[in-house]
Design a protein that fits this description.
The protein has helices at residues 14-21, 108-121, 132-140, 159-193, 202-218, and strands at residues 8-10, 23-24, 27-30, 33-35, 46-52, 57-59, 79-80, 83-90, 95-100, 147-150. The chain is an alpha+beta fold.
């Protein structure tokens, strides 16, 4: 089951389910349960999971009048660093890959740039110093811009567990890239500011501490 007690989930439209599962006797026959006309008033609305069993849910809004299944709800939005992620499941190779979802006009490295750029701008350093060249160089050092979970031959291939592992690997890869970028920025800062003031200058210390504090929070 994809959802848990208390989750707010959105009910799929009638047309969407009819297109996927077809109709029979005035209802949509998906899996072992039917989506009936009486349930259509919830289509497009968010409802609350009130109980879970091995194969169905009940919801608070209908006072347990009907049984609901995963197929009746829209997929739960899955995000990392505020960006939606997608998965590529290969059952033959027993792998699950996790990528950032991005428009056709963008590449994975563009999403990485946006994430790191936002992190750096949020440091609110009091000194403007160009960081794009350093950022692009750092990102280029991470050729695998995805997370990948591989199931061992003796293990059971669990897609949901694979998704969690692949997503965690992508998150860790991004965080390592962030810290590597900040290390390079400190070196750049030391080099470019040395001619303006020495290390004891209060302005330098503010910049240095802002970057250093962020790095400590990530460990």
């Amino acid at each position: 089951m994809k959802f848990k007690l208390g989750d707010k989930v959105k009910v799929r439209s009638w047309n969407s389910m009819e297109k996927e599962f077809g109709m029979g006797d005035g209802s949509i026959n998906n899996t072992d349960y039917c989506f009936t006309e009486g349930m259509t008033k919830y289509c497009g609305n968010y409802v609350t999971i009130d109980s879970c069993s091995d194969d169905c849910y009940t919801i608070k809004e209908d006072n347990h009048s009907w049984s609901w299944t995963d197929d009746m709800f829209e997929e739960k939005e899955d995000k990392l660093f505020g960006v939606e992620v997608v998965y590529n499941v290969n059952e033959d190779k027993r792998t699950v890959a996790c990528y950032f979802k991005c428009p056709v006009c963008m590449k994975q490295e563009d999403v990485w740039e946006d994430i790191i750029d936002e992190m750096y701008n949020n440091l609110h350093t009091p000194f403007e110093i160009s960081h794009y060249a350093v950022m692009n160089k750092t990102i280029s050092e991470y050729p695998k811009k995805f997370g990948l979970a591989k199931c061992l031959a003796d293990d059971i291939f669990d897609v949901e567990e694979g998704k969690r592992i692949a997503k965690r690997q992508l998150r860790d890869r991004i965080n390592r890239c962030k810290l590597n970028f900040l290390d390079k920025m400190i070196v750049k800062l030391e080099h470019e500011t040395s001619s303006f003031f020495d290390r004891e200058d209060s302005l330098y210390e503010k910049i240095y501490q802002s970057v250093s504090n962020y790095k400590k929070e990530q460990h």
